[in-house]
Amino acid sequence: MENADDPSSPNQNSQSENMGWAKKSHAIWASTENWLISTALGVMMVLPLLEIALRRFNSGVSGSAEMLQHLVLFVAMAGGAIAARENRLLSLSTFTAFLKGPWATAARSLSASVSVFVTFAIGIGCYQFINTGFIGDEVLFFGVPVWVFMAVMPVGFALLGSRITWFSGSSWHFRLIPVVAGVALYFFCTHSFEDVEGFVWPMILVLILATIVGAPLYVAIGGMALIMNWGWSGYFPEERVEITIQTQSQTLYGFISNPLLVTLPLFTLAGYFLAQGDSSKRLIRLIHSIFGGVRGGAVIVTVLVCAFFTTFTGASGVTILALGGLLMPVLQSAGYNERSSIGMLTGAGSLGVLFPPCLPLILYAVVATNTKLVSLSLTDVFLGGAIPGALLVLMTIAWGVWKQPQASIVRAPLDWEEIRKAFIGALGELFLPIVALFALFSGFATPIEAASVSAFYAFLLYLVDARWVRKARIRNELPQLMSECGLLVGGVLLILGVAMGLTDYLIFAMIPDQMVDWAQATIESKLLFLLVLNGTLILVGCLMDIFSAIIVIVPLIVPLGVVFDIDPIHLGIIFLANLQLGYLTPPIGMNLFLASYRFSKPMSEVIKASLPLLAVFVIGVLLITYVPSLTTWLPGLFK
């Protein structure tokens, strides 16, 4: 009789072969997804360059605008699916990290059940939206019907749901729980209740609990929009579900197809090309060769390099994680203790959010203009952020110079030969912001074309660095790099798309109007309103990531800004500066968590280290708030 435990038995061999084929199939599918999203980003980068070239011959690429918009849609859904594949969907909570055993299993099952419910509902809505008479046989370009490009939405949500289910448990009987529970919740909501208002708060409480135990951020925001529209919008029972889920999908499609959003993945791609190679080392060498011999030179190096990278990646988390290990020795070698160094890196990681062409500036301009109450150009918003951003940088450097121990200061003459070599080495990186800003402000290109030029220039820098400096295998590295960019961009765009559904409900429910009435009746002073706004936005910055905060909160505060006669550019910079401050605000500021992870230190230690720089940022935010000319002078100068 054969031993069933014998590794050489037929059963064991068959199982090993099946597992081997499953792993190979998964690897092939993952590689295909990486190549598809890399190709989409590559086409998005090249197509505007063709437009610039063909414009000289009074020609262009037919349907290029629509093609770019639908490529953004593809990147949003494919990037979200890749994030789910890697189990890296953005969430608000890290609570599950502290749970063990049955409690962890229960938390995963709950979060996955609600996630499957929300994902399934939005996916069904997307499928129904595509099959409406409104879409029909409309053709976009090359004779391809529009529904072919829109089909990426239900397919994307199907992949999201299946991958969330997969990670919900270690065996199939655990994975069946979210499938059964999620579908049951959906069919419960499709029941024709005469009065559903009594179910709204229990559903919201379940959603909040699921968010606490790890449900993705798009589920939390999209679920809130679905539940509120379902229960509080006053639809008739027979049309309640259909209108709710189709409205969510229409809003998702309409927002992600916004032409200006094309700039978001392109500028992000430029940042990823820049961060992949040794650009950070070359910039550190250059700035250190110039300022290393003066008091606070290490801080100057840290602040300028962090601001440069955050400007192009749009995310302070990337800066802390990527540059923390490089810059910590620079600070400590200059005499700063470990605590001061961690505090500096935690704070400096968010510097750059106000400099063009950082992504939050682009997104604020898009969302504020969508309210129809103000009209903003990217140029004005970029100019408005320049001086406040420089103010925060200078204040951070001043604090660092004052903080450096006197005994550690070693003044050294400038080594001009080293400066020359470092300058030549970093020349390519130094030209990147010049290329981006020249393309944007010279009238030579549209904002989309300027983003394309920036991405292509950064791509050339990457090729030179990978081919001749690092000797990397570009064929293997490039798709992985671009898929990482797509993962970040897709995850963000997915959140933004579903967040617009919540924004639409808030507008439908006249929440902004009620806030305006309350503010006019309660707050008489513009200065007092700005103080209340600062406090509220700092809290928002603690609880929400900057991208979803822009989508949900900006439509609420723009009407208030109009009532209190606050320049919309100034309002936007106040908004972003406060969110930047929220990154550092204990106990749940995002940068605090990232620094704790990056430097392997307890949260309490990171919070103590960051408090001095938090105070510096508070002063800077108050100056930005109460001295509006810091923001409005430069845009006014160029009008």
Would you kindly provide a written description of the structure presented here, covering whatever features stand out?
With 639 residues, the protein is an all-alpha fold. It has a two-stranded antiparallel sheet with strand order 1-2. A hairpin with a 2-residue loop joins strand 1 and strand 2. The longest helix is centred in the first third of the chain and has 46 residues. The protein is globular, with a radius of gyration of 26 Å. The model has no long low-confidence stretch (mean pLDDT 83).
Strand order in the sheet with the most strands: 1-2
Order of helices and strands: HHHEEHHHHHHHHHHHHHHHHHHHHHHHH
Which spans of ≥5 residues are poorly predicted at pLDDT below 50? none
Question: Sheet with the most strands?
Answer: 2 strands, antiparallel
Let me know the number of strands: 2
Strand portion, in percent? under 5%
Question: How much helical structure, as a percent, in the residues?
Answer: over 70%
Radius of gyration: 26 Å
Alpha carbon gap, first and last residue: 90 Å
- Mean pLDDT across all residues, rounded? 83
Give the structural class: mainly alpha
